[in-house]
Backbone:
């Protein structure tokens, strides 16, 4: 096991301690709201409406992503995150007020979640570059590991708390909790002291082009992002049909909360496992680690009981923890530091830009060919995308490197997630 002092050393540094605390609070709020938003929309409309709301929010997030990457390379990244947190907090509080006040409708929730998506779109690019600025160079990977572990940990508590609030009270209460968490997060992030960048920035378009050049010059990167994006589109069926099936066949929000909570426990195990995994071909193992996600679709398509769905969620989350750790480690080692915010915006955009389309299509497609058939089709698409990634020579050519590893033994891998 990794010594405790080597695991927690980054928390001795003030700015990272603030970032870690803010991340923990806002991630908990988001996990609480994730289940609340789903059932709030289902109470107001249909599975198609749910797909439209989730899709619109994701589309707004994707639309602002490139701007967020450039912005995060120009301004103090902590200030960018403060502004994003305030936007997200206002959106969630307004959504909660509409639901609790009885004035909510699918259209109102959709509009407010678009606002939320605008705030969320700048978070990942800013966060990718902020971590190294809040901690000493020798502890960067350790800091990333701690952030990954806290995200995994609150993923266990969040859905359980969200499900309890939905069952005992209202989805609006859970959404209000999320809104408050963003305001607290903004107050904490505002205390981080990051020096302003020196020199005059290039034009917005020049910065975009430079970021694109760094992204497109690496075939393993753009090809993997494209194909993972196709797989993410297909996985949208789990996000939409899972809650619908839970609502109609498995007992409602409580059952779905169990599935998500067990998945959160799996993500903790995945993050811990990923600290020790050091494969010779990290991108190959990274891709294979995503394959258990397909097991969730199989369980759902077969009409499995809650405990089987929970078990499949656990296994998938373990794999996803390893997958994300390896992906961000490779990214940080292969992409120059000065371009990481912009390149990460292209990475995130490419990985998730198709999700809004997938979320919007799941309802109509499942109404046409059936829910189970939609899940099997999604599984086939995901398997094909993973196979295509593994077939790429540039993917197999990526080898393990110790460049950028922490100075403190034993070396660890980053568990920073998107």
Residues:
């Amino acid at each position: 096991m990794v010594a405790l002092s080597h695991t927690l050393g980054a928390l001795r540094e003030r700015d990272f301690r603030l970032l870690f605390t803010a991340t923990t609070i806002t991630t908990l709020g988001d996990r609480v709201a994730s289940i609340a938003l789903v059932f709030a929309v289902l109470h107001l409309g249909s599975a198609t409406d749910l797909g439209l709301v989730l899709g619109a929010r994701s589309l707004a997030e994707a639309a602002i992503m490139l701007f967020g990457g450039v912005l995060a390379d120009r301004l103090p990244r902590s200030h960018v995150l403060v502004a994003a947190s305030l936007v997200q907090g206002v959106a969630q509080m307004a959504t909660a007020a509409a639901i609790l006040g009885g004035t909510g409708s699918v259209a109102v929730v959709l509009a407010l979640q678009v606002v939320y998506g605008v705030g969320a779109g700048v978070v990942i690019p800013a966060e990718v570059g902020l971590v190294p600025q809040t901690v000493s160079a020798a502890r960067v990977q350790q800091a990333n590991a701690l952030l990954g572990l806290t995200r995994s940990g609150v993923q266990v508590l969040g859905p359980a708390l969200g499900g309890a609030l939905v069952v005992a009270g209202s989805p609006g209460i859970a959404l209000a909790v999320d809104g408050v968490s963003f305001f607290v997060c903004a107050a904490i992030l505002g205390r981080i002291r990051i020096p302003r960048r020196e020199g005059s920035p290039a034009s917005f378009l020049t910065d975009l082009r430079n970021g694109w050049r760094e992204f497109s010059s690496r075939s393993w990167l753009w090809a993997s992002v494209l194909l993972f994006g196709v797989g993410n589109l297909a996985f949208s069926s789990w996000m939409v049909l899972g809650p619908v099936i839970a609502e109609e066949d498995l007992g409602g929000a409580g059952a779905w909360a169990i599935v998500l909570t067990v998945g959160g426990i799996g993500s903790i195990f995945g993050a811990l496992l990923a600290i020790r995994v050091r494969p010779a071909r990290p991108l190959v193992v990274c891709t294979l680690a995503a394959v258990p996600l397909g097991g969730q679709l199989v369980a759902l398509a077969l009409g499995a009981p809650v405990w089987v769905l929970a078990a499949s969620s656990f296994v998938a989350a373990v794999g996803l923890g390893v997958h994300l750790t390896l992906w961000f480690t490779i990214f940080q080692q292969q992409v120059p530091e000065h371009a990481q915010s912009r390149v990460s915006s292209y990475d995130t955009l490419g990985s998730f830009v198709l999700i809004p389309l997938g979320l919007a299509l799941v309802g109509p497609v499942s109404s046409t060919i059936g829910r189970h058939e939609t899940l099997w089709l999604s599984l086939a698409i995901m398997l094909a995308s993973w196979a295509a990634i593994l077939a790429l020579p540039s993917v197999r050519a990526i080898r393990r490197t110790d460049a950028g590893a922490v100075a403190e033994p034993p070396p660890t891998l980053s568990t920073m997630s998107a």
In short: Residues 4-397 form a domain with the Growth Hormone; Chain: A; fold (CATH 1.20.1250.20). Confidence is low (pLDDT under 50) at residues 403-418. The two ends are 26 Å apart (CA to CA).
